[in-house]
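Notes from hallway chat w/ T.B., transcribed later so I don't forget. T.B. wanted the structure written out for a chain they're using in a teaching module, and asked if we could keep both sequence and structure tokens in one place. Agreed to drop them here.
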Amino acid sequence: MIIQGLQKLTLLDFPGKVACTVFTAGCNFRCPFCHNASLVIDTHQNPKIPVEDIFSFLQKRKGVLDGVCVTGGEPLIQHGIGDFLRKIREMGYLVKLDTNGSFPDKLQRMVEEGLVDYVAMDLKNSREHYGRTIGIEGYDTGKVEQSVAYLMKGRIPYEFRTTVVQEFHQRSDFEAIGQWIRGADRYFLQQFEDSGDLIRPGLHAYSDTIMRQALEVVQKYIPAAQVRGL
């Protein structure tokens, strides 16, 4: 496990829970709009947080925190992620896993072994434009599609979410996404924000009006869809 960040308290990341967020290093995608670029590129330059320090922190926060969000980067590329999540669960915490969905077998194993309580999967774009959106031209979306299909079986509470960027998303993409995950339990459109730590600077958010128009498109297929943050 390579851990390079810890947010000690969040009321937003784990729906309905008081949690902390652990940030793992490294990702197999190169999304230009990634707001945690320093956890994706040249991660060897970042200080590491020993796993033991995370567990020590969690031991002290028993009775204060409900859960732990594990994000990245992409947590499922980590060696030992299963053991890490198991130890968190054994300490009595709920676990939320953020993932890009590119490791469906590992995702399923984590869920089936009872190591995860909630999954948030980033759905980057329509299948047609996936490769361009994740910085890997010609990307085969097969594994992402497997993860989508598995989560939609309802074995575990989940959400899909798409960060909306002017340079990468248009109306036809929202039509395609809506048709792809028709009837999903939860789907959120998230307005892009420039964190100052992007892989590719110079990207732009849509206006609130355009975001609401995008929501109207996807709600034809996913009535429960929402725009997060408006």
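Follow-up for T.B.: Residues 208-219 form the longest helix (12 residues). Might be a good example for the class.
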